[in-house]
């Protein structure tokens, strides 16, 4: 094996290991399904959204919410009760978002409040976290087959 082939093999193994480690952090599949695509659609019109594009923190928080939202129904505990998280919802808190994005918790709170006032999200808070629902999730994240069916 040549040096370049060896380096390419090591690089491929490293990329696979990093992907597996990252997928283990995935809030959607939790690393249980490394074969899952685990993606969301990001539309180019985000570039023209003055709320999301206001600054780097606004954009990062919006993308964090999009990437952390569940894509299918899941049973979770919220306010001590079992609830079903639906597509486009997530359970989190501002401290977790702040740590993940290296942004102050007060900035996260201000941005979430702004997103809510612009009807981009809905929030329900408890003393241990908040349930966030991304408005219009299904409009933008529905499977391709469903979109094609609606176009005709």
Question: What do you see in this structure?
Answer:
By secondary structure, this protein is of the alpha+beta class. The protein folds into 2 domains: 1-38; 44-141, Arc Repressor Mutant, subunit A. It contains 6 helices and 5 strands; from the N terminus they run ααβββααββαα. The protein has helices spanning 3-24, 56-68, 94-101, 105-117, 137-141, 144-151; strands at residues 74-78, 81-85, 89-92, 121-126, 129-134. The strands form 2 sheets. It has a 3-stranded antiparallel beta sheet. Strands 1-2 form a two-stranded antiparallel ribbon. Strand 4 and strand 5 form a beta hairpin. Helix 3 (94-101) packs across helix 4 (105-117). The longest helix has 22 residues, at 3-24. The radius of gyration is 18 Å and the shape is globular. 14% of the residues are buried. Mean pLDDT is 81; it is low at 18-24 and 147-152.
Tell me the Rg in angstroms.
Answer: 18 Å
Q: So, CATH architecture of the largest domain? A: Orthogonal Bundle
Task: Tally the structural domains.
Answer: 2
Helix/strand order? HHEEEHHEEHH
Number of helices: 6
Features:
disordered C terminus, 3-stranded antiparallel β-sheet, 152 residues, alpha+beta, two-stranded antiparallel ribbon
Chain-wise SSE layout:
Blueprint: H1 3-24, H2 56-68, E1 74-78, E2 81-85, E3 89-92, H3 94-101, H4 105-117, E4 121-126, E5 129-134, H5 137-141, H6 144-151
Antiparallel strand pairs: 1-2, 3-5, 4-5
Give a brief outline of the structure.
Helices cover 45% and strands 17% of the residues. It has helices at 3-24, 56-68, 94-101, 105-117, 137-141, 144-151; strands at residues 74-78, 81-85, 89-92, 121-126, 129-134.
